[in-house]
Structure formats: C-alpha cells, structure tokens
Amino acid sequence: MSANMPRLGAIVAGIAALGLASGCAQIRDHKGYVVDSTLIDTVRPGVDNRDSVARTLGNPSFASQFDRGATWYYLSRDTRQLAFASPRPVGQMLLAVRFDSAGNVVGVEKSGMENVVSISPDGDKTPTLGRDRGFLSELFGNIGRVGAAGAAPGGGTADNPN
C-alpha cells in the first residue's frame, strides 16, 4: 500500500497542474470582417464601383459619416487575453475603400497595427472644471444662502429665480 502512495501523489499533482494550466490559457478572439486577401487585392481604383465592391467584399463594417458614405471601412481585429485580464490586440486590418460622387472606386488603403493606440483612463474620477470643494464644504456650503439678504425673491438665484 505504501508503494502506491507516491504514484497517487504524482497523479494528484498532475491533475492539479492541468487544472492550473487550463485556467491560465490564452483566449483568442476574432472580431469584424473575415479577411480574404485574394478578394481584397481584386478591388481596383478606376475599375470597380459600389456594386462590384459590395458583391466582392460584402457589406462594409461601417461607412463614413462625414463625407456622406463616400468611404467604406472593413475592420478586422484579432485579440488575446489571459483569464480575467483585458484583451490585447495582436492583429488588425483596416481597409478603406473611397468612392467618388458617381460611385466609382478612387482609392483603396490598407493599414494594420500601426493605428492601434492604447489609452488608460485617469483612475475612477472624471476631472471637471470648477471649484474643488471638500466634504464639509459640500455638506454645509448652502447654509445661509437660501433667503439671505439680496437674494432673488422666491428662494432661487439671480440666474434661476424659481
């Protein structure tokens, strides 16, 4: 019986190691357009129009808002993350197809990870303009202001008399 104890310990340790390894595995995810390089390379300025691009590449991920839809964007992003960490982008492709007023393709631009920017918010507070008041000032700041001499009638302020 004592000869089986080391084996049992090794089996338990192996199962525990597998459990830890599977809990820390990377999660891979793909979002957006499914890239087919062959189809992307067939879109040519001066040859294609909106209809042919829609038939070749499908509907865009989004269209521009500022030039009345004259640019279609196809966005694809691959991310990885460990357990509960935030996902990190590991691959991105942005294809911009520009059209003229007649609907013909005038430009095709492809970009990648060089446009990805990491931002970090400033803590859990949003900075605002104005006075920085402490707790007591917030609590007792309005004492004596309501109905004070020179105040607008009705208990309001000069800006808002109601």
Automatic annotation (TrEMBL):
**What positions does the domain Outer membrane protein assembly factor BamE occupy?**
32-106
**Record has Signal as a keyword:** yes
Keyword entries, A-Z: Membrane, Signal, Viral envelope protein, Virion
Q: Which domain of life is it from?
A: Bacteria
Pfam families to which the protein is assigned, alphabetical: BamE
Quick one: a GO cellular component term? outer membrane
* Designated name of the protein: Cell envelope protein SmpA
